[in-house]
Design goal:
single chain; 358 residues; Rossmann fold; six-stranded parallel beta sheet; six-stranded mixed beta sheet; 12 strands; binds alpha-D-tagatopyranose
């Protein structure tokens, strides 16, 4: 063989080896894209699609409970502020009403944009399990924020639902207890109470009602609960229902409004009936209007949650998961409260806890 032929043969051989090596390196579809990722391994093995483009900023989505609610407005602010600091892209959306049938298509539309993680305040503890699990099965990290899903009080370690990475939110049984113990004290330890609530099936407000009932039971019968009404997250309906109870129970002593709109409606009815200061109101959530009512003695206690911090924490956990560090994420992260009364309303802590309205 001539020297030229030997060199040509050597080059063919090199080319063949290179082609073989290249074929071995061709990436296979991640499990999430082939539909094979069903179990929590998805957080490690299946690269979520939002992470796929190397070098791109990861995207974290927020699916909140309802538009125009100061609580979620504040949560989104906290989430966006943390995301900006951490170099994370954000998409955020929620339904026009606090309703699972309206929230589900919003979640589906968010999932279709392939975020790496979703922080979600599920508007129903059962109805959202299936679509959230479907998102998880695509390899998207799921974190509950504000509300939890399933039957086991937000315990994602051993309960019927374990796929979310964490539940970031208030201790709502404790919140309901704090609210109702405060009313019980202000009515002198005995009398009739009434609860304005949103709708059964929402983890947060169910638990607040539970905490309030526990506080009432602890009085051993001195305080009685005359009823609970559900307003569908509508302040006008809450006001109508409360007005009817004020008519029916002229000696009603106290009312617990379990969320922003429930408390707003209850307070409005008390004002309309000229019973300011006579019927005591405990207000869950802290929009500006509730603080004004506190100053005007329409209510005596405002329980401020920390939605800004919930948003911040959720993005922090999401980024840890995106970076493969799920071990450092607690399954439950309680965010705490600031309890606001006329005694501390002007402190920095209380003022910082008031929700933003836009
Ligand atoms: O109380 C908050 C939130 O915690 C709850 O889950 C739903 O209602 C609010 O958004 C206030 O309107």
């Amino acid at each position: 063989m001539s020297q030229g032929n030997v060199r040509r043969l050597a080059m063919f051989a090199l080319l063949a080896v290179a082609l073989l090596a290249l074929a071995a390196c061709t990436p296979v579809a991640p499990a999430a894209q082939t539909g094979a990722a069903a179990e929590p391994a998805a957080t490690e093995a299946a690269a979520p699609e939002g992470e796929a483009a190397a070098g791109d900023m990861p995207t974290v989505a927020l699916v909140y409970g309802v538009r125009g609610d100061g609580f979620y407005v504040t949560m989104e602010k906290g989430l966006r502020a943390a995301a900006e600091e951490m170099g994370v892209n954000v998409i955020a959306d929620g339904p026009a009403q606090f309703d699972a049938t309206l929230q589900r298509p919003i979640l589906d539309a968010v999932v279709a944009q392939n975020p790496a993680a979703i922080c979600i305040a599920a508007t129903d503890r059962q109805a959202l399990i299936e679509p959230m699990k479907a998102a998880f099965d695509r390899g998207i990290h799921i974190i509950s924020v504000d509300t939890f899903i399933g039957d086991t009080a937000g315990d994602y370690t051993t309960g019927d639902v374990t796929f979310p990475l964490s539940y970031v939110g208030s201790d709502n049984v404790e919140g309901g207890r704090i609210a109702c113990e405060a009313i019980i004290e202000s009515i002198g330890g005995s009398g009739k109470m009434y609860i304005q609530n949103v709708r059964p099936g929402i983890s947060t407000t169910d638990q607040r009602e539970q905490g309030c009932r526990e506080a009432i039971e602890a009085t051993g019968g001195a305080v009685t609960l005359v009823g609970v009404d559900y307003n569908e997250d509508n302040a006008a309906r809450a006001a109508e229902q409360t007005a009817a109870v004020l008519q029916r129970e002229p000696d009603l002593a106290g009312i617990f409004g379990t969320n922003l709109f429930s408390a707003e409606g209850a307070a409005q009815a008390v004002k309309n009936a000229g019973l300011t200061g006579v019927v005591k109101v405990a207000n869950f959530d802290a929009p500006e209007a509730a603080i004004e009512d506190l100053r005007n003695e329409v209510n005596d206690i405002v329980i401020a949650q920390l939605p800004y911090q919930m948003g911040q924490k959720c993005v922090e956990f999401a980024l840890a998961a995106i970076n493969g560090d799920t071990a450092s994420i607690p399954k439950r992260f309680p965010t705490g409260y600031v309890v606001i009364t006329r005694d501390n309303v002007d402190t920095e802590e209380a003022q910082n806890a008031i929700y933003s309205s836009q």
